Amino acid sequence: MARTVVISGGGTGIGLATAEVFAADGEQVLLLGRREEVLQRAAGRIPGARYCAADLTEPQGARRAAEFAAREYGTVDVLVHSAGGSGALEDRPEFEDPLEAVAHDWTLNFRLNTLTATLLTEALQDHLATPGGRVLFLSSIAAYRGSGSGAYAASKAALHPYAHDLARRLGPRGITVNLVAPGYVEETDFFGDGIGEDRRRQLIAETSTGRAGHPGDVAQTLHWLASHAAAHITSQVIQVNGGAERGH
C-alpha cells in the first residue's frame, strides 16, 4: 500500500530529489513550499505528485498545509523537513544600525530553518501514521562547526534537541524521528548565485571521498531512514558529508 510522504521545500534541490526517490517507489508525494510556480513545475516532473503552497514560517501557513494534507490523505506516513536556507535568496534591507542587521539575520534564519520545521510538525503530529510514522529533519554540517555568521548554524543546531524531545514524545506511538546533516551539496539554490571556485575546491578537499555531495546522496539516506529497515533507529543525526566532519 502506497504511503503518503509530505516534503517541505519539495520544489527544488534536496527536497525535490527526495520526492523523486519516494515517488519511484510508488509513494504518494505532497510537495510544500512558498513558491507556487516552483511547486507546480516540480510536481509536473513527478507522477501523481501534488502540491500546496504555504508560508511555513507562519502558524497560519503551517496550519493550512497540515489541513490540506489531512483532508486529502488522512494519514501522513513520512514527513520530511527540507525547507530552509541561509537567507541568501531573501530580499535583505539596508541597515544603518549593525545590531539591527544582526537581529534581522538571526530572526530570518530561525524562521526559515527552525520555525518551518517545528510549526509543521506540531500541526501534523496528530495525523502521523501510528505506528510506523517517520519524521525527518534536514540539519547541516554547520550545526557542528558553524557557518561563518553563526545564524544559519544555530538555527540548524536548534533542530537537534527538538528532534530528540520529539522522538521521546512520539516513540510510544511507534514513530521514529531522525535528522540528516549534509555537508557541501551542489545542484541546490543554497548559495544563491553560487560560490567561487576556490571555495568550492576547499570544501571538496575537506572530504575523504574527494567530491561534492549531490541531492541524491541526501535523498537516498532519507529514503532509508523512512524504510522498515530503519524502524529501530530514532533520535539520531546521520551525517552525509563525505567525511568532512567525523564522529559525534
From TrEMBL:
Keywords: NADP, Oxidoreductase
Residue ranges of domain Ketoreductase in the record: 3-207
Molecular function in Gene Ontology: oxidoreductase activity
SUPFAM superfamilies referenced in this protein's UniProt entry, alphabetically: NAD(P)-binding Rossmann-fold domains
UniProt xrefs under InterPro entries: KR_dom, NAD(P)-bd_dom_sf, Sc_DH/Rdtase_CS, SDR_fam, Sec_Metab_Biosynth_SDR
SMART domains: PKS_KR
Pfam families to which the protein is assigned, alphabetical: adh_short_C2 (PF13561)
Similarity remark: Belongs to the short-chain dehydrogenases/reductases (SDR) family.
Record-linked PANTHER family: 7-ALPHA-HYDROXYSTEROID DEHYDROGENASE, 7ALPHA-HYDROXYSTEROID DEHYDROGENASE
This protein's name: 3-oxoacyl-[acyl-carrier protein] reductase
Species name: Streptomyces wuyuanensis
Taxonomic lineage of the native organism: Bacteria, Bacillati, Actinomycetota, Actinomycetes, Kitasatosporales
